[in-house]
Design a protein that fits this description.
Layout lengths: L3 E6 L3 H12 L4 E7 L2 H11 L3 E4 L8 H16 L3
Helix pairs in contact: 2-3
Length: 82
């Protein structure tokens, strides 16, 4: 069975840690890392390419919706799509 890689993105460190603890208890999930703002989220997602990003909507720098739009554009560029 393939392990699903997860990135946890939220501006509250205590919430990120709690979510990480819950996810790490699941045998088929692997937490690749965390980010505390939208800009950092884009950096780690582009670098580590997780299967899933758990993303807060209200983030500093770029909000969660802006991050999702940029992730979609990045994925399209990787796949050569318009």
């Amino acid at each position: 069975m393939k392990t699903i890689s997860v990135m946890v993105i939220d501006d509250h460190p205590l919430f990120r840690q709690g979510l990480r603890n819950v996810l790490q208890g699941e045998p088929d999930l692997s937490v690749l890392g965390e980010a505390g703002d939208g800009q950092e989220a884009l950096t780690v997602i582009r670098r580590d390419r997780p299967d899933v990003a758990l993303l807060d909507i209200n983030l500093p720098e770029l909000n969660g919706l802006q991050v999702v739009r940029q992730i979609v554009d990045f994925a399209r560029d990787l796949n050569g799509q318009q």
